[in-house]
Amino acid sequence: MNSPFVSDVPAAQAHAAWREARAAAGCPARVETVRVSVGEAVGRVTAEPVWARRSSPAFDSSAMDGIAVRASGTVGATETTPVVVTDFEVVDTGDPLPPGYDAVVMREHVHRTPEGAELRAAVPPYQHVRSIGEDISAAELLLPEGHRLRPVDVAACAAAGVTELVVRRAPIVVIVPTGDEIRPIGAELRPGEILDTNSLMLAAQAREAGCEARVTDIVVDDPEAITTALRAAAEEADLVMVIAGSSAGRDDYTARVVASAGSVAVHGVAVRPGHPVVLGVAKGNPATPVLGVPGYPVSAALTFDIFAAPLLAELEGAAPRERPSATARLARKLPSVFGMDDWVRVRLGRVQNQVVATPLPRGAGVLTSLVRADGLLVVPAGVEGHHAGSEVRVELLRGLSEINRTIVAIGSHDLVLDLAASALRAADPLITLASSNVGSLGGLVALRDGLCHIAGSHLLDPATGEYTLPYVDRLLDGSGIAVIRLVHRDQGLLVAPGNPLGLKGIDDLTRPGLRYVNRQRGAGTRALLDYELSRREIDPSTIPGYSREEHTHLAVAAAVSAGRADTGMGILAAARAFNLDFVPVAQEPYDLVLRADDLSGDLLAPLWDLLASPDFRAQVEALGGYSCAETGQRIR
Ligand SMILES: Nc1nc2c(c(=O)[nH]1)N[C@H]1C(S)=C(S)[C@@H](COP(=O)(O)OP(=O)(O)OC[C@H]3O[C@@H](n4cnc5c(N)ncnc54)[C@H](O)[C@@H]3O)O[C@H]1N2
Ligand code: MOO
């Protein structure tokens, strides 16, 4: 298996091949057992059944505060024929039932008289008595083997007289980061260097899964050095994870190294991200499973979930942890490569009583797609994707009550929405404002199709020079739609510091040799440019770079900042974020379009309160390039 070509083994087959290779090499099926006190046992997995050693309660006890009586002495008591008992004893909840008594009357139902205690109802035997063994009876099976211990479990064990438990020790995971360009967290980076964020993440994932995690020093891209590190790691580990070098690059040695230290069962699975994963074993006494984790962070995180987590659970003899799932409607079309399980990160929110899933960026390097994800959706290998509006099954990464309180904003992106998201969450930890960026037009279409609560729009109608409302009439039929002004913002040309080309405005964009970077079709900024061009009768094809598209203001700013373009149109805030200069072109309104019914609903009320808050408006204006003069006004 030394070929540089990565195969496409289906996930289920890959799991099976790895299991077979582990068994053949003599990898232990389980980690050893240890005896621990109940105080230290939470999170561990029982390695033998737990039998109760004593009953709980261990004696008949009073279940209420009141008096202990003999039931036989209360026969005949009614509202009209009360019985006064003199033979009773005062008891509190939990007290042993005094000998000879067989029932308890709550003190609220006892009328004390000089003669004794007056009862207005007969008392059945064992009323308000917790009898011996009600909870646990001695010698019963309390917990089976293979049970991951929770706080309630250890409390029940202790109550049953079991103070020590035989459990599987925590599996030890050793993580070996590799790569000439990789530097420890906190290091000053030189150009081309990358922080070792994967070790941090994988170690935390392993600990969250109940393991002990160790990270070795970063190993250079040298097969001998990696082999040495792998062998040493295998000595102490139940699972070694070698990070990066899994694919077909010149310095990608993982598969070769694993083969030389033992054997490779699979190199390449039909899963994306995570495709070039290496599944193998390192020889030793005993042999140790090895997982070659692809270097891209999303691939690394998902590879842990897909391959490491089930193996680690198996080593402890426990069921793998499972996430709850829900059915959702897809907010957007979701193309997918045929032949690969495609793990897509999604944001979730409830719109018109249905959970809606909006796919996040798909790149294996986009770790924030996992940071922002509310759920994971797998497009199976045999499916070529889904249409917008399709029903899909989603694994939940957040609770449904949070998802139900998520404001779904789809449309054009604006930093004010990010600011609002942060302020709303600070005021109430259950509120999320999730905005995803598909341009103004895409947002209006999503609103029309019931896939979002709010569409952020700054769409200029070139025919009338009017913003957003003409599109609302055309696309949404206008009726039942409300439009709230969010802000006015300055749009202009983002240019390198000092404006080296001396650009003064739109008329300069046709300059020969200029490199423009545009926004995508359907973006409001694109429409604004087109409007400004048509007013001047400038043919877009005369602008060098007109067909080059970026999807956000920040992406345009990044392109200018990196010198990949001379200019592009965007908002002042984006220029500030990248320390660029800004040549104003126009001031435009940015509006929130929504169903009028939602205006008065509970979900959006905190947003309207926020827009009315002077503090929030001051924060928005402090961003620069924004005016809040009309913020919160209903314009339709
Ligand atoms: N010709 C091919 N190229 C690639 C293929 C392929 O099949 N043929 N597969 C692609 C896929 S899919 C993935 S995933 C990656 C896997 O990359 P490697 O595992 O080989 O890792 P590197 O190339 O060394 O690094 C990729 C990327 O990850 C960064 N990295 C590495 N280690 C860490 C770390 N500890 N913390 C954070 N980031 C890390 C590294 O700097 C790179 O940016 O290969 C594709 N290419
Ligand atoms: O399979 Mo790779 O992990 O998509 O980027």
TrEMBL record:
In this chain the MoaB/Mog domain maps to 174-314
Q: What class of enzyme is it?
A: transferase
The UniProt entry, under InterPro entries, shows:
MoaB/Mog-like_dom_sf, MoaB/Mog_dom, MoeA-like, MoeA_C_domain_IV, MoeA_C_domain_IV_sf, MoeA_linker/N, MoeA_linker/N_sf, PBP_domain
So, what pathway does this thing act in?
A: Cofactor biosynthesis; molybdopterin biosynthesis
Catalysed conversion reaction: adenylyl-molybdopterin + molybdate = Mo-molybdopterin + AMP + H(+)
Q: Which SMART domains match?
A: MoCF_biosynth (SM00852)
Under the heading Gene3D superfamilies, the entry gives: MoaB/Mog-like domain, MoeA, C-terminal, domain IV, Molybdopterin biosynthesis moea protein, domain 2, Molybdopterin biosynthesis moea protein, domain 3
E.C. no: 2.10.1.1
What superkingdom heads the lineage? Answer: Bacteria
Please give the name of this protein. Molybdopterin molybdenumtransferase
